Amino acid sequence: MPSPSYGDVDYETQGGGYVRGRRTDPRIAALVHAALGDARTVLNVGAGAGSYEPGDRHVLAVEPSAAMRAARPPHLPLAINAVAESLPFDDGSVDAAMAMVTVHQWSDPDRGLRELRRVSRGPVVVLTFDRDALDRIWLTDYVPQLVTADRPRFPAIERIEAALGGEATVTPVPVPADCADRFIEAYYSRPERFLDPAVRARQSVWGFVDPRAAEQGLARLRSDLDSGAWDQRYGALRRQPAFLGALRLITGPPPQVDSAPGGVRP
User: Where is the Methyltransferase type domain (predicted)?
Assistant: First the structure.
């Protein structure tokens, strides 16, 4: 059976905060669902509580965390207890596969992505963050350790493309100012929210930052908000409708069919 804590975050004990705070943003969902094309059967790997699963298609969900499986709303299909690196599906058995901000939690991202490619006869859609663009948000000026801690966790975009066959499309995803999915960039125009421990609890990277460094950076942020220094430097972001940061949508096209009888190229 899969380990209950397969990645670098223990979702058995920390998953509750994710369920409450990490919700589907409809504008990001529209991009994800468009990338799935006309797929009728969709495999969602690292499915968690079901964010971004399309409601108008047949979804098969895979999630190794018992706590996250239990947190799935009753209208969603039950999730299968399995891991990305060893999917219990035949080759080409689903129309499309998706992985939403989960690849960095896999023990072997290359193997997991190859598994998604194996079981999907159509597109493979991955929502992730570009490790080289994590420092675009102003928060890293206050807590630079956020980048230091997060960058090694995320596979490089080129690595994901290669695992999907090398011909993937990479699309930068604008984050709306009122984004419902409360990852760090969702608060680019709402700096006060980072002072709330409940908000930070929904963002796994804080668990990898030295608490003293985090406290010092947040104290500086609080001081700059009180004095108006933050608004003098970054205040235009409060009126900016979207932020183009590190969020990326990677779409691996369907595998090419070889001209030889029965041949399929990845």
Answer: 43-120
Answer whether CATH 3.90.1150.10 is correct for domain 11-253: no
**Segment (H or E) for 123:** none
Residues of the chain with pLDDT under 50: 1-6, 12-16, 259-260
What's the CA gap between 108 and 20, in Å, rounded? Answer: 28
Identify the H or E element spanning 226.
helix 211-227
Residues 109 and 132: their CA atoms lie apart, in Å, by 18
Q: How far apart are CA 202 and CA 91, in angstroms?
A: 35
pTM: 0.89
Mean pLDDT, the chain, rounded, equals 91
Residues sharing a CB contact under 8 Å with residue 9, sequence separation 6 or more, in sequence order:
105, 204, 207
3-state secondary structure of 142: helix
The tokens of 209 are what?
């930052």
How crowded is residue 23: how many other Cβ atoms within 10 Å of its Cβ? 17
Q: Beta-strand (E) ranges in the chain?
A: 41-45, 58-62, 79-80, 96-100, 124-129, 169-172, 175-176, 242-243, 247-252, 256-257, 264-265
Sort strands 58-62 and 79-80 into parallel, antiparallel or unpaired: parallel
Task: Report the pLDDT value the prediction gives residue 4, as an integer from 0 to 100.
Answer: 34
What lies within 8 Å, CB to CB, of 246 at 6+ separation is 129, 130, 131, 133, 134, 136, 137, 185
